[in-house]
Amino acid sequence: MDELNERDLFRVRLRFLDLIKSFFVEEPDAELMSRWRGTFSALAQEQVSPRFDNAVKEMSRALNDKSLKELQEEYYKLFVNPFDGGMVETTASYYLNGRSYDQALVDVRSLMDEAGLQKDKTITDPEDSLAVMLDTFASLVEEEKVGGGDKNRQLQAKMLEEFLEPFTEKFTATLKESEHADFYYLCCRILGGYLDLEKSLVISM
User: Fold this and answer.
1) How many structural domains are present in the chain?
2) Model pTM?
3) Per-residue DSSP letters for 72-102?
4) How many CA atoms lie within 13 A of 20 on its CB side?
5) What is the pLDDT of residues 114-161, one digit of tens each?
6) What is the widest separation between alpha-carbon atoms in the chain?
7) Residue 3, H or E segment
8) Digit-coded pLDDT (tens) for 156-178
9) Which domain holds residue 10?
């Protein structure tokens, strides 16, 4: 990433955030799976960081080996079906406070207020859900792109260090232990590897 100019770097960051969010916002369809296959096939040829590169190579292999139906069934078991005990929570407050709709939700909302951001009213997930937190972080990156200043960078660092990173660590551990998670555990590894890259950018600003 060091070789990219500033404009390209913002574009790459936003594309990665959108890519990672696409794992978790909806059940995959043929078009989305094709997009993932093309993206990770290309990424597997690049060298970014050891942690990220290893996750990318495993993801590329998984996307070639698995069928769309397998991915859809795994998504349903993990994120939709509440009846067989395999459903996984996706909110920061669940992992950081022990229950949903707790202090982490209040704190994420406070950060969004400070940044002048609001959740899209069509989204039913709470502000501390993974998808919304990624949206919030992407909005902060967009603001930085047009000159967000020191406050914006501080809010990016706060979102990373206080919410996204600790959430991802616990979320990944949960999926690693789940008998239903295979592909989506790899998605978490991609998320964790990418957040490392974001942290190196944000903290060094």
Assistant:
1) 1
2) 0.93
3) HHHHHHHHT--SSS-----BHHHHHHSSSSS
4) 30
5) 999 999 888 899 999 999 999 999 999 999 888 778 899 999 999 999
6) 49
7) none
8) 999 999 999 999 999 999 999 99
9) 6-203
